[in-house]
Amino acid sequence: MLLEAIYHRPGQSYCYSYDEHTIHIRLRAKKNDLHTVSVLYGDKYDWDHTASVTELYKLASDEWFDYWQAEVAPLHLRLRYAFQLTDNEQSIWYTEKGFVKDKPHNPLTFFDFPFLWANEVLQPPAWVKDAVFYQIFPDRFANGDPSNDPESVRPWEASSPGPHDFYGGDLQGVLERLDYMSELGINAIYFTPLFAAKTNHKYDTTDYMKVDPQFGNTELLKSVVKACHDRGIRVMLDAVFNHCGYWFAPFQDVLVHGERSRYRDWFHIQSFPLTCAPRPSYHCFAFESHMPKLNTVHTEVRQYLLDVAQYWIRECDIDGWRLDVANEVDHEFWREFRKACKSLKPDFYILGEIWHDAMPWLQGDQFDAVMNYPVTEAILDFYAKNLINAEQFASQVNKLLADYPQQVNEATFTILGSHDTPRLLTVTQDERKMKLAVLFQFSFLGAPCIYYGDEIGMTGGEDPDCRKPMIWDVSQQNRSLYSFYQQLITMRTSKRALQAGAYRIIYAKKQQLVVERKHDHEQVFICFNNSEEAITFTVAGLKIASELCMLLGNGAFKQENDQLIISLPAYGWSLLHN
Question: Among 285, 360, 494, 525, which is most buried by a count of CB atoms within 10 Å?
Answer without folding.
Answer: 525
